[in-house]
Amino acid sequence: MDIFGLLLFYTFSFVSANEDERLPNKCEVCKFLSVELQDALEKTGRSKEVLEVGEVLDSGKRRRKIRYNTSETRLTEAIDNICERILQYSVHAERPGSLRYAKGASQTMTTLKNLVHKGVKVDLGLPYELWDEPSVEVTDMKKQCETMLERYEEVVEDWYFHHQDQRLESFLCQSHVLQASEQECMNEVWKGDVGNKGGAEEAESDGKEDEGSQEEEENLHDAGEL
To answer: pTM of the full predicted structure?
Structure first.
């Protein structure tokens, strides 16, 4: 058992060394920024909330009403701390390219934790309670995410108000952030994960809930009309 643990330690050390030499590239940062922002927006896309904007003047002019799901407020709330969500990712060194970044524990870490629970001594050079802390790679991706979002905020706003017929990763990453030679990661899909089926199911049922609401929405305005 000690020999097995030693071999596993050397294997993990080799993986860690490779991970230290590998920081996220621009394609990967843009890809996961887009994934997280798109997901955040999809979670509020079905809201029926109505916002009142403007001030009530002495002339008696009424405040205008806009739908929350098309408002700037919705976008602002989604963007706020969106890069913090990157810290939920882990490095899955056994996967190629951008697929190495995913939420949940990697196979390597899961194996090591199972060994610890079985009584095997595993020394990674840091306390067990810190094993789940964000890695150097993930922390770097979060910082790059914040820089990218600040630089391309107007592009994101343009997509939100005028181009939501396109996926955000296509409009932002492929059309504005990345050169053609930098887009390889956009086509990488991990088929072993379930993916965001919930978002697709919500979109499918969205149309059903919206039936019969057209009469109510006639008095509302899209944010772009203001």
So the answer is: 0.68
CB-based contacts of 2: which residues, under 8 Å, 6+ apart?
121
- By CB neighbour count within 10 A (0-12 exposed, 13-18 middle, 19+ buried), where does 95 fall? middle
DSSP secondary structure, 105-173, as one string: --HHHHHHHHHHHTT-----SS-GGGTTSPPHHHHHHHHHHHHHHHHTHHHHHHHHHH-TTS-HIIIII
54 φ/ψ sector (left φ>0, alpha ψ -120 to 50, else beta): left
Whole-number Å distance between alpha carbons of 93 and 106: 8
pLDDT in tens, 175-201: 999 999 999 999 998 776 444 443 333
Radius of gyration of the CA atoms of the chain, in A:
23
> Do residues 59 and 216 touch, judged by C-beta distance below 8 A?
no
Q: What six digits make up the tokens of 68?
A: 């929350």
